[in-house]
Amino acid sequence: MPSANLTPRSDTVVRRILDAAAEIFAREGYAGARMDEIARVAQVNKAMLYYHVGDKTALYEQVLHSALQRNRAIIQDAIDHETTGERKLQALITTITELATTTPHLPRLMLRELACGGTEIPDAVVSDMAAIFTMLRTILADGQATERFRHSNPLMVHLMIVGGIMVMTSGASLGDRVAAQAGIPEVAEGLVSAEAMARQMCDTFLHGILRQKENA
Q1: CA dihedral 42, 45, 47, 51 (to 10 degrees)
Q2: Which pTM value belongs to this model?
Q3: Pairing with 121, which of 37, 130, 145, 147 sits 20 to 30 Å away (CA)?
């Protein structure tokens, strides 16, 4: 089990281990990742790795749980600073996009899990994912209650937003190649920056869920 009494120095070691593990889990997947390699990249010996974070299963859970807990707090703070449903939805999409581009290992990790049916995702991590989904569901429900948003399936909207962001951030270089091969490089323009991606996502989803005013 991980040590409960972390000193500032040991906390730095844990952060280094988690960063190394995130990189290797994203590249190799849970099954392919090796604790020896994680220890090497983190510049700790294997005994120290097990002392601070436990076995591979515990380490995998800690990598995902710590990242999603941090993201969850940042997303909630961004939403809380807005007052309208449209602005809250924009804040959620923009913040998730920024987080995906600044922590690129997490989208790749989650895409690997989705491709495998999520079999290795621990229950604590599912709870983190559900909490982020609940933020979006609340925004949509409030917008529907005030008749600003059309009724929509919140889980489907959530998967389209989060899945789209993960694919765009993880597949930007491939998108550039496909667009270039098709002779229209401007198609990949939306994959250039987090700001451009978020702007496109916000525009698409707001036009999709905003209730249209009926003609008089």
Answers
A1: -30
A2: 0.82
A3: 37
Dihedral sign for Cα 135, 96, 26, 60, please: negative
Q: For residue 92, give its domain range.
A: 65-209
* Residue 198 within any structural domain of the chain: yes
The pair of structure tokens assigned to 174 is 């491939």
Question: Which stretches of 81-151 are DSSP H helices?
Answer: 85-102, 105-115, 123-145
CATH of the domain at 49: 1.10.10.60
- The residues, ordered by sequence, that sit 6+ positions from 63 with a Cβ below 8 Å of its Cβ are 18, 21, 22, 25, 109
Per-residue pLDDT at 197 exceeds 70: yes
Same domain as 82, residue 48: no
pLDDT tens-digit readout, 155-193: 999 998 998 888 888 876 777 777 777 777 655 554 556
| Residue 148: strand, helix, or coil | coil
* Region of residue 29 (left: phi > 0; alpha: psi -120 to 50; beta: else): left
